[in-house]
Amino acid sequence: MTEHAMKPDLSSSLFNMWRCIVALAWADGECGAEETAYFGKLFDSLPRHYKMTQDQRNTLADDLVNGKSGGIDGFFAHINDPDI
């Protein structure tokens, strides 16, 4: 079994949790250089622990650079895994 095969998928719940956290970083209308660098490193490490789709990677990168209009409310309904 390959290392990639042993990684769990990045679940929709966990993916939306990260999107929510990034939206919180943007709550004041900007995501500063330190926040961006921190999240960038964190998101770069996620594929070492989870199988991620290219769409998930692109979405997190876009959220980090551009923010997400509408805030965090849209993500809460999708955070439904009690183990995260």
Description:
The two termini are 26 Å apart. The protein has helices spanning 3-6, 12-25, 33-49, 54-66, 73-76. The mean pLDDT is 89. The longest helix is centred in the middle third of the chain and has 17 residues, at 33-49. The protein is an all-alpha fold and 84 residues long. It is globular and about 40 Å long. The protein is built from 5 helices and no strands.
Key attributes of the depicted protein:
0% strand; 5 helices; 84 residues; globular; mainly alpha
Gross morphology: globular
Work out the helix count: 5
What is the total tally of β strands?
0
Tell me about the largest β-sheet. none
- Whole-number radius of gyration? 13 Å
Question: What letter string, H or E per element, gives the SSE order?
Answer: HHHHH
Q: Mean pLDDT, nearest integer?
A: 89
Structural class: mainly alpha
Poorly predicted regions: none
Give the N-to-C terminal Cα separation.
26 Å
- Measured by DSSP, the beta-strand proportion falls in under 5%
Share of residues in helices: 55-70%
